[in-house]
């Protein structure tokens, strides 16, 4: 295959990084790269290509912004696919577009709407990795003869002392995406590769610029892909017309403070936009979808000590002992890991925080890490089902 970019002599950074890339596979092995049209997945494809692997790019058609917000000509997915195709052409690698829109709608968008209506706060990016990219796409990668599938996620995969693959936080702490990948199973991890895990973001952009890729300066996406401009309620109301019912705003002491247009308009920890006037600041403490209530209270009412989990995934070397074990946990993607005790009661896991945290919301994730100073290894995680106040 002709390497279009080999005509350029000044590829020192690209060749140095690609030369150090070791995917644990013989050179020439086929690597299926999930190409989203962004700079990270584009550089992932480039590094695998220059490292001597047989690279095939695959892009998923997942959604249509025009459909999501009922606005014509707003399909950003189309531009992303176009960008991925141009990068593949520049690298001289095969590229395929797969229509996963129905799968994505059923597995991610419907869950997003149902979770919001239940009064919880969803993380659709985790569901997408769990139910689409690392499930359906991974199986497609095998069908295409791939020895592995590579993505542009900022997370590292290393072989541990036990000889099995381990998931570790990215070297660039500001870009680490381990919180969104806690549902990755051991079988999936054996097949996956993450070439950007040890690279800082500026170096990734420098490689894209050195190669002259059209996405070198493309901004990072700040929103959920199918929720343009962060308008969550617009998407929920479109998917579930009329489902957002008004109800009461109730203080934790039982006092009715006012009314609201629907629980989907609120999140745990919210302070502004409550529409009630009091002398002291009040925060959303709980959303009770069954009673159609938004429960508010003082800041201290947000403090959580115990977290009960569901759908837990474990990547540790040994099962969680009945007596529990020490771990570090993240309850929000933007928060650092904090020390806690992970407890097991049969098949159920719960977390007891050493230092209580504010704003822990059902529907979010609680991700486990090793309790060492670096909290480097990802041990799994679970979805927050309920909490107990401190």
UniProtKB/TrEMBL annotation:
Ranges of residues in domain tRNA-specific 2-thiouridylase MnmA-like C-terminal? 306-384
Q: What is its main location?
A: cytoplasm
> Where does this polypeptide localize?
Cytoplasm
Molecular functions (GO terms): ATP binding; tRNA binding; tRNA-uridine 2-sulfurtransferase activity
- Give the matching SUPFAM superfamilies: Adenine nucleotide alpha hydrolases-like
Q: What is its EC number?
A: 2.8.1.13
Keywords of the record: ATP-binding, Cytoplasm, Disulfide bond, Nucleotide-binding, RNA-binding, Transferase, tRNA processing, tRNA-binding
Q: According to its UniProt record, which protein family does this protein belong to?
A: Belongs to the MnmA/TRMU family.
Q: Which major enzyme category is it?
A: transferase
Quote the function comment for this protein.
Catalyzes the 2-thiolation of uridine at the wobble position (U34) of tRNA, leading to the formation of s(2)U34.
- The tRNA-specific 2-thiouridylase MnmA-like central domain covers 244-297
Q: Which InterPro entries match?
A: MnmA-like, MnmA-like_C, MnmA-like_central, MnmA-like_central_sf, Rossmann-like_a/b/a_fold
GO terms of biological process kind = tRNA wobble position uridine thiolation
Give the site residues for Interaction with tRNA.
Answer: 153, 364
Report the active site residues. 128, 225
Specify the protein name. Answer: tRNA-specific 2-thiouridylase MnmA
Source species taxonomy: Bacteria, Pseudomonadati, Pseudomonadota, Alphaproteobacteria, Parvularculales
Disulfide bridge positions per record: 128-225
Transmembrane stretches in the record are none
Annotated GO CC locations: cytoplasm
- Report the catalytic activity: S-sulfanyl-L-cysteinyl-[protein] + uridine(34) in tRNA + AH2 + ATP = 2-thiouridine(34) in tRNA + L-cysteinyl-[protein] + A + AMP + diphosphate + H(+)
Q: Where is the signal peptide?
A: none
């Amino acid at each position: 295959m002709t390497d279009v970019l080999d005509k350029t002599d000044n590829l020192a950074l690209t060749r140095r990084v690609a030369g150090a890339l070791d995917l644990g596979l013989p050179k020439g092995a086929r690597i299926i790269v999930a190409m989203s049209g962004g700079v990270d997945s584009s550089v992932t494809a480039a590094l695998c290509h220059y490292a001597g692997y047989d690279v095939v790019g695959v892009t998923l058609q997942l959604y249509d912004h025009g459909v999501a917000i009922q606005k014509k000509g707003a399909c950003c997915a189309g531009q992303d696919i176009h960008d991925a195709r141009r990068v593949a052409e520049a690298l001289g690698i095969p590229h395929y577009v797969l229509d996963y829109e129905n799968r994505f709608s059923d597995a991610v968008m419907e869950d997003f709407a149902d979770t919001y209506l239940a009064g919880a706060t969803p993380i659709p990016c985790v569901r997408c990795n769990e139910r689409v990219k690392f499930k359906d796409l991974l199986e497609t990668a095998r069908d295409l003869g791939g020895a592995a599938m590579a993505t542009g996620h900022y997370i590292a995969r290393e072989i541990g002392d036990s000889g099995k693959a381990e998931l570790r936080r990215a070297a660039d702490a500001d870009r680490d995406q381990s919180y969104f990948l806690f549902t990755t199973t051991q079988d999936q991890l054996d097949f996956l590769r993450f070439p950007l895990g040890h690279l800082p973001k500026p170096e990734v952009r420098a490689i894209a610029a050195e190669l002259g890729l059209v996405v070198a300066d493309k901004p990072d996406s700040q929103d959920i892909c199918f929720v343009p401009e962060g308008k969550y309620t617009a998407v929920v109301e479109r998917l579930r017309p009329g489902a957002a019912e008004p109800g009461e705003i109730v203080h934790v002491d039982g006092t009715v403070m006012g009314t609201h247009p629907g629980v989907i308009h609120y999140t745990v920890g919210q302070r502004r936009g409550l529409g009630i006037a009091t002398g002291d600041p009040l925060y959303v403490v709980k959303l009770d979808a069954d009673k159609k209530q938004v429960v508010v209270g003082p800041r201290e009412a947000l403090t959580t000590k115990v977290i009960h989990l569901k759908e837990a995934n474990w990547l540790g070397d040994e099962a969680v002992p009945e007596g529990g074990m020490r771990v570090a946990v993240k309850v929000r993607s933007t928060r650092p890991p904090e020390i806690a005790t992970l407890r097991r009661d049969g098949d159920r896991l719960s977390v007891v925080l050493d230092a209580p945290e504010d704003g822990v919301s059902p529907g979010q994730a609680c991700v486990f890490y090793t309790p060492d100073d670096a909290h480097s290894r990802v041990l799994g995680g679970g979805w927050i089902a309920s909490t107990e106040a401190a």
